[in-house]
Amino acid sequence: MNAPNLQAFQDQVSELLLRHRSLLDVLSKNGQSSASVNRAVTKAITECGCIELHATKQSFDAGTDLESARAHAGTHIEGSLCENCREAVSSELGRNLFYMSAMANLLDIQLEDVLNKESKKCSTLGLFNLS
Asked: CA-CA distance, 4 to 95, in Å (whole number)?
């Protein structure tokens, strides 16, 4: 069996989504699933302890080149997700992707197109894409 592409997944979501077909329902479920991703990561820190968060100010020297700045910038994460936490976070990310696909379906937006446009924008703008 081939790995599903975005369009195949979007089609599958369209077939499965019965209860929450209203855009308002999908918007609220998308927000709820996003919060669940955040909660699963938080639990990995506060309950399991497999990862730790050590947040500090990100400081950059004005004369530093971009590669050095990228290498210097930290993620604030220490450790790595254990198998259980990785499964929990992955599951919540999957649910989030499901509702994002449902929203795209209701609004007649193809995620493949979104991905291609965003990738092109990232290629064109590089590091200035999200500034």
From this structure: 16
Predicted TM-score of the model (pTM)? 0.83
Average confidence score pLDDT of the chain:
88
Name the residue among 120, 103, 97, 106 with its Cα closest to residue 4: 97
Contact 108, 78 (CB under 8 A): no
d(CA 5, CA 57): 39
Mind giving me the DSSP string for 41-101? HHHIIIII-SEEE--------TT--HHHHHHH----EEE---HHHHHHHHHHHHHHHHHHH
